[in-house]
């Protein structure tokens, strides 16, 4: 009663081998393709193009205008302030100030026509002089060369009417430097 | 002899004093690199959020805190052919504040993460937004007007020009699986036929 090969057993073994082979091929195929498909998302290249170092400063950093009467204006000396571009590329400069003085008694007027309890500040000497607004707007100085300086002065115009004799007012002017477009 | 030493000492002191008096100190504020950064995704949106370092240098002889915020520029400052990023919260900066001891440098990390749900709406577009860095450098208490300097890093972002197609690859795999399954099914059928009594 030895183990006798019959045609059914041979065919069965042959088919099993084929199935096993097909399964192995499919697994091999999946293991090769899956990382390639996933790599489509995980290894996407992103390019960075950095350019230009910027370094801006202004001097002096403070100024006391002293007493200014309603309806009048006061200027700093010509080129009293100096804008410095110590960066490696040409630079644009925007200006803004707070909407009011720190004590919130006087409001900043954006267009040079201050009325009641308000004031305006205007730059003089920059490449595109204008009034300082309460949000950054167009650059008041453009394309200041690397290692370049630009002198400017400020004109403070007081409103036509002041409802009281205000004491010392203080405000901050923000100067923002950005690489020239 | 002693008198000569005294004279030389006085001369040195006077010389140092005059040099300090006559030398105009170079004005320098915070320094940042880069001033402009262009990010392009030519092959599609990556799954990971994109990050890049902005280096900040404190040239002062005292420590400062530098802070960073993301801000869209004024419309007049927007570069031609660029638009605002649809949601400014897609750009984040870490940390918000950086402590910089005297004469040291450190880095802010800028992240860009366009939500997956939004990506399909934004192909082939160019955005501009700014990372504004300022310091708490004291401007002094004198005077009615003080200046505060800020630096803006211009971020230009180019979104992918076309949809990345991982679905195509998945589709190929699916077809392969279906074909393989079909072959196995046919082979199994043959096995059943070969078994006696089936």
What this model shows, in words?
The complex is a heterodimer of chains A (181) and B (198). Chain A has one helix and eleven strands. Chain A has one helix spanning 7-42; strands spanning 47-51, 54-59, 62-63, 73-75, 81-85, 91-97, 107-108, 118-124, 141-144, 149-158, 171-179. In chain A, strands 2, 4, 5, 7, 8 and 10 form a six-stranded mixed sheet that branches. In chain A, strands 9-6-11 form a three-stranded antiparallel sheet, with no helix packed on it. The longest helix of chain A has 36 residues, at 7-42. The termini of chain A are far apart. Chain B has 198 residues and is of the alpha+beta class. Chain B folds into two domains: 24-164, Immunoglobulins (Immunoglobulin-like), CATH 2.60.40.10; 166-198. Chain B contains three helices and ten strands. Chain B has helices at 2-22, 116-119, 166-194, and strands spanning 31-33, 36-40, 50-58, 64-71, 83-84, 91-94, 97-100, 104-112, 126-135, 145-158. The radius of gyration of chain B is 32 Å and the shape is elongated. The interface between A and B is large, with 70 and 67 residues. Strand 1 of chain A pairs antiparallel with strand 2 of chain B, so a sheet runs across the interface.
């Amino acid at each position: 009663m030895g183990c006798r090969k019959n045609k059914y057993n041979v065919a069965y073994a042959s088919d099993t081998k084929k199935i096993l082979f097909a399964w192995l091929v499919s697994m091999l195929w999946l293991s090769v393709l899956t990382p390639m498909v996933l790599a489509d998302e995980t290894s996407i290249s992103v390019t960075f193009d950095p350019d230009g170092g910027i370094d801006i400063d202004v001097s002096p950093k403070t100024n006391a205008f002293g007493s200014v009467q309603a309806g009048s204006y006061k200027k700093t000396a010509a080129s009293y302030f100096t804008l410095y571009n110590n960066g490696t590329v040409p630079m644009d400069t925007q200006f803004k100030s707070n909407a009011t003085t720190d004590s919130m008694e006087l409001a900043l007027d954006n267009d040079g026509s201050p009325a009641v309890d308000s004031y305006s500040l205007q730059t003089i000497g920059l490449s595109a002089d204008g009034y300082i607004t309460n949000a950054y707007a167009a650059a008041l100085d453009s394309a200041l060369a690397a290692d370049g300086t630009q002198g400017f002065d400020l004109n403070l115009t007081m409103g036509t009417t002041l409802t009281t004799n205000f004491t010392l007012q203080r405000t901050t002017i923000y100067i923002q430097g950005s690489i020239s477009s | 002899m002693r008198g000569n030493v005294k004279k030389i000492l006085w001369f040195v002191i006077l010389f140092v004093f005059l040099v300090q008096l006559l030398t105009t100190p170079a004005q320098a504020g915070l320094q940042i690199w880069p001033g402009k950064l262009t990010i392009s995704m030519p092959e599609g949106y990556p799954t990971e959020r994109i990050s890049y370092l902005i280096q900040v240098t404190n040239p002062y002889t005292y420590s400062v805190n530098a802070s960073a915020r993301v801000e869209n520029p004024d419309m007049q400052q927007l570069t031609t052919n660029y638009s605002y990023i649809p949601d400014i919260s897609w750009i984040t900066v870490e940390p918000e504040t950086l402590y910089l001891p005297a004469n040291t440098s450190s880095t802010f990390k800028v992240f860009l993460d366009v939500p997956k749900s939004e990506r399909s709406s934004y192909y082939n577009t160019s955005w501009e937004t700014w990372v504004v860095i300022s310091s708490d450098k004291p401007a002094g208490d004198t005077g009615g007007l003080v200046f505060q300097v800020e630096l803006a890093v211009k971020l230009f972002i180019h979104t992918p020009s076309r949809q990345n197609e991982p679905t195509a690859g998945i589709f190929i795999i699916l077809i392969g699986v279906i074909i393989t399954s079909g072959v196995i099914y046919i082979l199994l059928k043959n096995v059943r036929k070969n078994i006696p009594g089936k």
